[in-house]
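Narrative of accomplishments. A recurring question from our advisory board has been how the design workflow behaves on a single, concrete structure rather than in aggregate. To address it, we present the structure tokens for one chain from the evaluation set, followed by the sequence designed for it. No filtering or post-editing was applied between the two.
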């Protein structure tokens, strides 16, 4: 009797999320970037969170190329960075989906990718204005390394916490996209000067980003040789996920 009465009662409505707060959003982004758990408001107000991430992505794109004489108009306008996060999010969403992660949606992946943009604001620091060319090149290479490692670490944590993947799947899911992205960007020669470094660069053509381009080249070579092993691990991870499901 009691069960019948209880089943007829209306379900208790879920409490409404708290109103959007920009200060709370900044606090959540700070927690996210420092590998801590953000509050539920980050997802409850996901349109505002995504808008913030896209705005920072655009600013980072503008800052990345504003003093680069080799940059094209679309790069100076920051459009390349916005397009990049959209394509990257789609790639990660499709590539990791066969590993059967939890809570895996394009919205969540896009939100994650855009919120990793603040570290890229380091690229906007005009170090060549107050240092020598060699020092500026070394600093830009350092910025590239810091941002890349920071983002990869955040991505690995995202796969483990949100996707709830195994340690092996996290390693494969982290390194395989990186290898594919680095190799593809270099083959497309999006930085214009990457392959010129292989044959030498004249002093008149030097820029503070040249050392960073060398880092990209070295990473590309490593990615090329690691790709077959990562692909084998990826296939094994897909098979393991299929076995668990069936």
């Amino acid at each position: 009797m009691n069960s019948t009465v209880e089943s007829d009662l209306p379900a208790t409505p879920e409490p409404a999320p708290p109103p959007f707060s920009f200060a709370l959003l900044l606090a959540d982004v700070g927690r996210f970037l420092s590998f801590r758990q953000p509050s539920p408001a980050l997802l409850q107000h996901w349109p505002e969170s995504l808008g913030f991430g896209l705005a920072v992505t655009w600013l980072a794109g503008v800052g990345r190329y504003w003093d680069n004489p080799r940059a094209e108009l679309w790069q100076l306008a920051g459009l390349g960075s916005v397009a990049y996060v959209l394509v990257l999010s789609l790639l990660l969403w499709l590539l990791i989906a066969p590993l059967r992660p939890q809570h895996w949606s394009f919205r969540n992946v896009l939100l994650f990718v855009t919120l990793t943009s603040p570290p890229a604001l380091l690229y906007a620091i005009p170090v060549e204005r107050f240092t020598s060319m060699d020092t500026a090149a070394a600093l830009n290479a350092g910025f590239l390394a810091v941002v890349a490692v920071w983002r990869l670490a955040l991505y690995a944590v995202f796969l483990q916490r949100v996707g709830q993947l195994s340690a092996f799947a996290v390693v494969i899911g982290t390194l395989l996209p990186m290898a594919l992205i680095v190799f593809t960007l270099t083959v497309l020669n999006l930085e214009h000067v990457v392959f010129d470094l292989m044959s030498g660069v004249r002093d008149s053509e030097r820029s503070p980003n040249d050392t960073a381009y060398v880092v990209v080249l070295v990473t590309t070579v490593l990615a090329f040789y690691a790709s077959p092993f990562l692909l084998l691990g990826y296939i094994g991870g897909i098979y393991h996920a299929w076995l668990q499901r069936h």
